[in-house]
Amino acid sequence: MYVQADVQYASQVENLVTRTVSEFGRLDIMVNNAGVGVGPHTIINVPEEKYDFLMAINIKGVWLGCKYAIAQMLK
Q: What gap in Å lies between CA 8 and CA 6, rounded to an integer?
């Protein structure tokens, strides 16, 4: 099974978990392995938009994955 999802959007992560549970009946593990970088830059050379994108994927994406996966696991 393949589900395309952009981990920076809650609705897409929730759909990923929901479809997985629908297909397999439950969720036993969640691997949050999406990640991006901004390249070899110093902090003064990274635009705020790149920083926001990095945080949306690397931090918020993991948080959203845990949020929806744990909710299913607790059921």
A: 6
pTM for this entry: 0.88
Rg, Å, the chain Cα set: 15
Residues 18-51: tens digit of each pLDDT: 999 999 999 999 999 999 988 888 889 999 999 9
The DSSP annotation for the chain comes to ------TT-HHHHHHHHHHHHHHHS--------------S--GGGS-HHHHHHHHIIIIIHHHHHHHHHHHHHH-
Q: Using a CB cutoff of 8 Å and minimum separation of 24, what contacts does 51-58 make? A: 53/8, 56/8, 57/7, 57/8, 58/34
